[in-house]
Amino acid sequence: MARSMTVEVYLRRNETFQVTETISRRPGIPPRSYGVDLRNRRCNCRRFQTLHYPCAHVMAACAKVSLNVEQFIDEVYTLECTLRVWENEFPVLPDLSTWEVPPTTFEFVLDKGLRRNLKGRPQSSRIHNEIDIREKFDGKLCGVYRLAGHN
Fold it and tell me: Which of 21, 39, 130, 137 is least crowded, fewest Cβ atoms below 10 Å from its Cβ?
């Protein structure tokens, strides 16, 4: 990790750093830089403030100035906190056959938009009116003149 990132110290007093990833994922793409603020527990990649757990950029900044990275790990990740969660009692679930299931008081309405498209020409959604009504014609028309009766 230390070889893939370079760390520039901006303000040691304020614990502000600029961390640049030296290994680019694709050729032609410049390496990315991230601002790290240890005092306010922030990194521009947003993993540090979102997960409350040090990202790789924070670890590189801590390694640069010989800080213990464990001080930036939130207490929810400690063993004591995990044990406090699991020390609560969970009720045992009764047998599934003894569950009281209320009758459904609602009706399922299917969403037609989630249906799979059918094969063939799509159905028209146009609303037809009296102009669209055609007269029925059962006879044959002449292919040249489009007239009936002289086929």
Answer: 130
The C-alpha atoms of residue 17 and residue 43 are separated, in whole angstroms, by: 9
Residue 145, both tokens: 């003149």
Residue 125 inside a domain? The answer is no
* pLDDT under 70: residue ranges of the chain: 1-3, 24-26, 137-138, 151
Q: Where are the alpha helices (DSSP H) in the chain?
A: 47-51, 56-64, 79-86
The token pair at 149 is 């009766």
Residues 6+ apart with CB under 8 A from 76: 52
Q: By residue range, what is the domain housing residue 56?
A: 2-85
Cα–Cα distance measured from residue 122 to residue 6, given in angstroms and rounded to the nearest whole number: 58
